[in-house]
Amino acid sequence: MAAMKTQQLKTPMMKNAASAPVIFFDDAPAFGTINGAIMIELAAPVVIPQPDGSVQFEMHCVAKLRCAPAALGSLKQAIDQLLTMQVPPPTAAH
């Protein structure tokens, strides 16, 4: 198993980090601002069983991200730094 890369920003120690919810999403399809507050809707596909035994996929909102512009800047900085840590996936041998 490959070692996980981590990088910490200069932030104070956080209490309850181990019990905070994990949010998985595949898309951020809607966003906007109201009175300066940043609003981002996060979505992921959900599998819905059907009576005939088949399944249907629907996109569901999994979280509503709300923050101040300064917090958005902090989130953007974390994402930018994370993107620099990305390692390309190994190519398959032919």
Description:
The protein has 94 residues and is an alpha+beta fold. It has a domain at 25-84. The protein is 18% helix and 36% strand. The protein is built from 1 helix and 3 strands; from the N terminus they run βββα. It has one helix at residues 69-85, and strands at residues 27-34, 37-49, 55-67. A hairpin with a 2-residue loop joins strand 1 and strand 2 (37-49). It is extended. The mean pLDDT is 87.
Report the major sheet: 3 strands, antiparallel
Helix-strand category = alpha+beta
Order of H and E elements = EEEH
Instruction: Please bin the fraction of helical residues.
Output: 10-25%
Number of E-type strands: 3
**End-to-end span in angstroms?**
23 Å
Mean pLDDT: 87
Discrete helix count: 1
Read across the widest sheet, the strand sequence of neighbours is: 1-2-3
Question: What portion of residues belong to β-strands?
Answer: 35-45%
Radius of gyration: 18 Å
What best-fitting shape do the alpha-carbon axes yield? extended
